[in-house]
Specification:
Shape: elongated
Structural class: alpha+beta
Largest sheet: 8 strands, mixed
Oligomer: single chain
Order of helices and strands: EEHHEEHEHEHEEEHHHEEEHEHEEH
Number of helices: 11
Helix content: 25-40%
Strand content: 25-35%
Number of strands: 15
Distance between the termini: 41 Å
Amino acid sequence: MEVWGNSIRIVRGEPDRTGDILRLLQEAANWMERNGIKQWTPGQFNENDITGYFTDRHVYLAIEDEAVVGMFTLQFSDPQYWGSKNDESYAYLHRLAVAGSHRSQGLGQHMLKYAAVRAKELGCRGLRFDTVAHNIKLNRYYQSMGFHYMGTNDMGNGRLVNLYEHFEEQPDSDRLILRFISESDFEHLKRWSVSPEYLKQWAGPSLTFPLDDDQLTKYLDGANHPANSDRLIFCAVHEATQQVVGHISFSAIDRANRSARIGRVVVDTDYQGRGFGTRMMNEMLRIGFESLDLHRISLGAFAFNTVALKTYEALGFKREGVERESALFGEQYVDCVEMSILDREWLALHES
């Protein structure tokens, strides 16, 4: 049993709670419909299906004063949502729901964290779950909790789900989280754009000084739908302090040719020198090759940025050529070094 707060305990559910579970799920579905969230409908839940939960999965309930105020289930195979990535050594979370009386109090987050711990206690490699792809805010919430994007699955009828996994990681006081950017992050990007030259160094010609909300709104528009956007735009968050410390993005995502470009890489000057750029790049390469199934990832760095060039080469990028005198800094033109890494090269580095 897990105890949260002063009065809520999380316990393994029994079939005698079927009616309570049905009411909780229908309430959650009604709330989603009222808020325009296309995930559940009240009519999809019935007592027969819920009774079946107790034979093919574990049911966990959050109980307060004998009332069910939250729930989730764990099952140990999920080919419907995970397809070829299904692995029976993982636990798969479904039916995460919180009663209306307890929303926005952190109970859902606590249940997710408890589920990750419970999966390990049950001998699983980790916790996995899915969520609707179109709800960027919800995806950002899960990312902010340290869940890693693993891919997108087409469930048919235009329904896309994003797949997430909680990794078993060693203790690390400087671990970073990559989550989708939001409008609340604009101030960080503007603060990091201290001069026309520095903005051009990390953003190239795509953004112009002085950086403003209008430019960033256009930059964000249409991004962060992994199955169809040509841009995925992230902020890097220092997990221990929850401070936004950097920014990085995929652009020019070409699904037909399985390629994309990493760009607009910047680390807050207060956090430079701690390897955060490398950490950001490592997670982007994992997302690109494992989650987006890319074959080729490219980038460009100005020739004077020797620290960045050494970082990219250490990560496995190969120099492809030079765009001679491609950008004007002050009164001097500078070269841009073009680099790329292929899926087989990245895989070889991570298998060794």
